[in-house]
Amino acid sequence: MTEEKVHSQIHQSKILQRREITPGLVVLRFKNAFVAHNAAPGQFVNVLPKIGFTDPLLRRPFSVYHTDGTTAEIIIQDHGRGTNILAATQVGEYLDVLGPLGKSWRYDSGNYKTAILVIGGVGVASMPLLTRQFITDRIPFATYYGARNSSLFADEYLQNIEYSTDDGSKGFHGSVIENLRTALIAERFPQPKLFVCGPTGMMRAAISLANEFHIPCEISLETEMACGIGICQGCPVETSVSESESTGRKFHLVCTHGPSFEKEAIVL
Asked: With left for phi above 0 and alpha for psi between -120 and 50, is residue 99 left, alpha or beta?
């Protein structure tokens, strides 16, 4: 699935459920059989806040959070005008959904025996489908999830969780990277690979940790995308020296080459 092209579609998708799972985090469940049947872990959809809206004009990208039958879900952090409009969408209204888009996590790469999901904040969005994939494929996995405090965890579809909080209100008192470092020093996980999504600083720290322990690491980038299909060229990320030498590209587009990248491929 990671190398296959899944054609995307634009679909008017009816909201079936709206729920607030943590302060400022809203999940919208909508009917869209195409996305539900075709989305692979790590892919995303590009969404207009309302059908026919021209203000705001541009779509917003959201990882596919969950799928079930003919329905799909996205998780929205209410932090701007467009996301505020989306988060306020009510049951019975419609979204204009383009997707699924992007490439999936490289969960079938074969270069690991244990998967470690490393999550910071709303980086959780692509992790439930990845969790489900590991369960289906019977791949051992652990989930390291960090947040500022205990009220901010969106863990409804996750399993095997080690929590970390900045204020010590749940789990390990400190960063998720510190918590994971202790486990790696203790060699708790045979031949691990990190699958990372969260704030940029956390992802950089995860890459450094992976380099320190000489283990593979993949990160999923969150960025603004106007088109989601590579036309607008609005989501470039710098490639590493080795990648640019081998491909001739100085930049990759997050929407078409990602959003997931092996740590060696880009400069974060």
From this structure: left
